Amino acid sequence: MLRISDDGFEKAFARMVRNRRESDRQVGRDVAAIINEVRERGDDALVDYTARFDNHGLGDDGNWQISAEECRAAYSALDADLRDSLEMAASRIRAYHEGQLPDDRDYTDDIGMRLGARWNAVDAAGLYVPGGRAAYPSSLLMNAIPAKVAGVGRLVVTTPTPKGEVNPLVLAAAHIAGVDEIWRVGGAQAVAALAYGTHRIGKVDVIAGPGNAWVAEAKRQLYGVVGIDMVAGPSEILVIADANNDPEWIAADLLSQAEHDPTSQSILITDSESLARQVEDAIDLALMKLPTAKTAKASWDAHGLIVIVDTLDQAPTLSDRLAAEHVELMVDEPQVLFDRLRHAGSVFLGRHTPEAVGDYIAGPNHVLPTGRRARFASGLSVLDFMKRTSFIDASEAALAAIGPAAVRLAEAEGLPAHALSISTRLK
Amino acid sequence: MLRISDDGFEKAFARMVRNRRESDRQVGRDVAAIINEVRERGDDALVDYTARFDNHGLGDDGNWQISAEECRAAYSALDADLRDSLEMAASRIRAYHEGQLPDDRDYTDDIGMRLGARWNAVDAAGLYVPGGRAAYPSSLLMNAIPAKVAGVGRLVVTTPTPKGEVNPLVLAAAHIAGVDEIWRVGGAQAVAALAYGTHRIGKVDVIAGPGNAWVAEAKRQLYGVVGIDMVAGPSEILVIADANNDPEWIAADLLSQAEHDPTSQSILITDSESLARQVEDAIDLALMKLPTAKTAKASWDAHGLIVIVDTLDQAPTLSDRLAAEHVELMVDEPQVLFDRLRHAGSVFLGRHTPEAVGDYIAGPNHVLPTGRRARFASGLSVLDFMKRTSFIDASEAALAAIGPAAVRLAEAEGLPAHALSISTRLK
């Protein structure tokens, strides 16, 4: 617990802002070696790594992929309530992302020059889906639906299936989202296969989706060979709360991030020391009953933080420095605070908007910038699966109007062929 | 010269598409070491590298920065025609980019849930401006104006000044664009200083701007610590032309890319072998007079290509595989071909739109994806200097309508604290 009025506050808070809780250099070296192997040995490298890391043998064609039929069967076998919940989530996510589709531009300006820009989806996108404990159907929906709304023709999932096991919920979500291919490959090797392609797996243009430190590092290293959604780190929540809150609600919200991973971070900023104490007690109580208590406690003990401010007026400045992935505004007039925030992945306004409602079903994407990256990055959107081509169409008269100025600039820059390409048309 | 009807065409064309003409691993290691030094030793490292690489001594405060007064003086000293040309370019670039400003979203859906997204500029952006031969005022305008249109408060230029020399045209452009700080530092060390900050140079959120292989690699390695505009490679032009063209115009267009750098690439696709021969001759002729002939010839000899197709109907498919930075459509009805293109950085329609008009003055950005990256990347825009915060505001009734489904999904995913944060509010 830090008090803004304490002497050491600035130093302690600055240290918290700097601490990225992210991966080390050895991961970078391991991943570079894996990428190199997959690039050179293709499917053979995938067979070797999958045997070693996933204890799964990739042999004949049959067991490399999970078929559309298997996904449909998983969907049909779902409990009806759960299936309806997934469908409701998919339809709300789809509706929100359809509103992100960008408009093309095409206009003619005052000198008669036609200018504009046209958006197109990428041809193919790859989605990494973690295996085991972190295989989340919600994550598949959040990644796959924007790609499909963007108009991506070929949507490829890679996912590790340790000992051959698959998560039926993920398959059901793939069925709902209309995934085109699913490959039983995981880790950095899967990302490399998506980026460079192998004999079996066709390469893609953009790779999205969450993963462990190796997967995240592989995406970072392959950025430029393909587009990637973002460099992701551990999850974060910042709750800004006045005295007038139920401490159990806030405790649950803080723990909902903490239960993801021991490196997750949960922060409470409040002007009420009494609320702060009650939240601490509520967390201790909740941890006694929570099945995920081990992870949540590890995260809360190592990275949890409560900041006591003199007045909530001080909260937006602190919040912008943290640039947290998720910011909850648990106050009567959240809009007032929201208007003063500049850097946050997603903001949850008011006491009845727990962050988890955004994880699943509200509609906006739950793939959001972490590690202070909301200073410059945005959550996943349809734009991550599209690109823009600008265009220029000059009439003879329009070229005559502005060509001479361009010739002058080209000559001043010492680029005579640039100048010539215009001047030869002005003769 | 390749003919699409020849036996070896597919193999030769595929090799051309694969060839990225990009940097090697040694650059990666050198850059990693430089970044590390700057991160650990800050300004001292900058002093050392600047003495070594730029032969320029950074000593007292006075010579680290180029002042706004120096920029204003450079602007005032410009030849009036050149100044007017720069101003015309700036005003057209500004007008085009103002049209890119995104709309916020804020709506309430059918269950009474308020959803939306809000765009903000980043706080600070860094622009790398090359020194020496490649110091282009047009490049400064193309990078700085979108940042200022986006609303970036602090716009920082770093540029090497070998032996202390500066380019007055670049300073004049900085004056026009409203750059806030200019630091006399270049190379990977400048990019590292912008990303991590030093005692003198405050860190930024996004780094844009062209540079040599070391600068490009530094940006790639620091992606994630900061946002970057893109991973850039050598420039490219693809001209698609029918028989009915002046070969001198096409020769000049091809050479306008070739003169940038020996690694640039110029490609002509035409259905007229006779035009192809005439263009080859016109290039030879132009090279005899061109002051930049040495570079242009090296590029044309090493990477130039003419593809003869049976019909221009075949051109869009080849063009999409190349996904070129610049595509010129030198035909009577360019729109017909344009409608069939999916992957290109920028398209220049019709015989009176030489690519160079887009480099300087048309309005759209000349910072465009290279190295086949138009498959997934877009040219520089105001969006590169902005980020989006999504938001959710649930009423008690809205939470009641969708909360139970979210609880079900959270439980199915094995995240009980997520479920608890919603269910505790539904009581």
UniProtKB/TrEMBL annotation, chains A, B:
Pfam families for this protein: Histidinol_dh
Entry GO CC: cytosol
Similarity annotation: Belongs to the histidinol dehydrogenase family.
Pathway named in the protein's UniProt entry: Amino-acid biosynthesis; L-histidine biosynthesis; L-histidine from 5-phospho-alpha-D-ribose 1-diphosphate: step 9/9
Residues that, per the record, bind substrate: S235, Q257, H260, H326, D359, E413, H418
Coiled coil feature spans: none
Keyword list, A-Z: Amino-acid biosynthesis, Histidine biosynthesis, Metal-binding, NAD, Oxidoreductase, Zinc
Higher taxonomy: Bacteria, Pseudomonadati, Pseudomonadota, Alphaproteobacteria, Sphingomonadales
Residues annotated as binding NAD(+): Y128, Q189, N212
Cofactor note text: Binds 1 zinc ion per subunit.
Active site: E325 (proton acceptor), H326 (proton acceptor)
Protein name as annotated: Histidinol dehydrogenase
Amino-acid positions noted as binding Zn(2+) in the UniProt annotation, renumbered to this chain: Q257, H260, D359, H418
Catalytic activity as recorded in UniProt: L-histidinol + 2 NAD(+) + H2O = L-histidine + 2 NADH + 3 H(+)
Cofactor(s) listed in the protein's UniProt record: Zn(2+)
Domain of life: Bacteria
GO terms of biological process kind: L-histidine biosynthetic process
Species of the source: Erythrobacter aureus
Primary role: Catalyzes the sequential NAD-dependent oxidations of L-histidinol to L-histidinaldehyde and then to L-histidine.
GO molecular function, one term: histidinol dehydrogenase activity
Keyword Heme: no
EC number in record: 1.1.1.23
